[in-house]
Specification:
With 110 residues, the protein is α+β, with helices and mostly antiparallel strands. It has a single domain, classed as Hotdog Thioesterase (Thiol Ester Dehydrase, Chain A, Roll), CATH 3.10.129. It has two helices and five strands; from the N terminus they run αβββββα. A hairpin with a 4-residue loop joins β4 and β5. The model has no long low-confidence stretch (mean pLDDT 92).
Length: 110
């Protein structure tokens, strides 16, 4: 679910599905299991937002919940993406243009 949410975010915000448009590495992923998603559960709501922006990395936060009752939370999680130059094999400062594009989706979480 988290990977699909990330992909949808980038398609919506950056308008692309090309790997060349995503110059970063997935450095860390966490998942806090709270409740099972049963096979009969047809509709799962996924919320994805940017919860932190650093100099070279940014963090997504995730929440999976029941569509009919968003207070029924199945899991929460995060992922840290680090901007990266694959040719030089080193991290990069997040470009201002990327910061501007994600700014409307930043929601700081405690």
């Amino acid at each position: 679910y988290y990977e699909e949410g990330r992909k949808e975010f980038f398609v919506h915000v950056l308008g692309s599905t090309s790997p060349e448009d995503f110059p970063f590495v997935l450095a860390q992923v966490t998942c806090n299991y709270l409740l099972p998603i049963e096979l009969s559960e047809r509709h799962v709501r996924e919320s994805v937002w940017v919860s932190k922006v650093g100099k070279k990395s940014f963090t997504f936060s995730y929440e999976l919940s029941r569509v009919s009752d968003p207070s029924w939370v199945f899991s929460t999680g995060t992922s840290v993406q680090v901007f990266y130059d694959y040719e030089k094999a080193e991290s990069l400062v997040i470009p201002a243009s990327f910061r501007e594009k994600i700014a409307p989706y930043v929601r700081v979480t405690p």
